[in-house]
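The methods section describes the discrete structure representation at length, but only in general terms. An entry of this sort, consisting of the sequence and the corresponding backbone structure tokens, reads as follows.
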Amino acid sequence: MGSPLPAWNGTIAHARELQVEFAKRVVLRDGFNKPLRTVAGFVAAPEDDGTRTCAAAVLIDADSLDLIDAQVAHVANATAFVPGLLSFHVMPALLRVLGMLVSPPDLAMVDGHGIAHPQRFGIAAHFGLAADLPTIGIAPKPLLGTAAALHQVRGAYTPLREHGQQIGWLLRSKPEVAPIVVSPGHRVAMASAADLCMRFTQSEREPEPVHMAQRLAARRGNEDDADADDAGDAA
């Protein structure tokens, strides 16, 4: 287990200081169970006009991909969203939903960036460090960096670099569809990240744990909207 992270006092200046400090603690070496037994997908999204965060998590069997558990947490936001500091904004909800699962996963795939981030500390890196979990970030497009042209074959990947430093991979997870960005978050080596992502990718663009968590979050969001409409009709 890593040492506990210093608490954030809620100010922008302190969050930026912590980003720099926390990024130095990220471990880019494989530190997950082999063979993997379970893998989880995590998604965090705003709701109620940004006053709350909805975090969804699914836990699946690493071999069969059968669902073991699924949870959703709705957490009131203590701070306003600030560009570049999204991970601080959503971390309470992600940690809450992690604690609701029947057990922590051997590996977590997070809808967001790992170290492919301007401060090398995206949501997946922050979550991995805060929870002391091996994590990989899965994002729909790069925030920064350049990459060589990518072959259309499913499973092809190429390094994503900024100023000569590799920060992740562009991965063609689905033919004829834009590649996704895969970057290690914490306790996962760069060399392992893309292959791990493809191991759990089936017919969708995103790996199955993330895709399942996205569907869960969308479904629960629609159910909550319907409940609110029903309450309004009854009022």
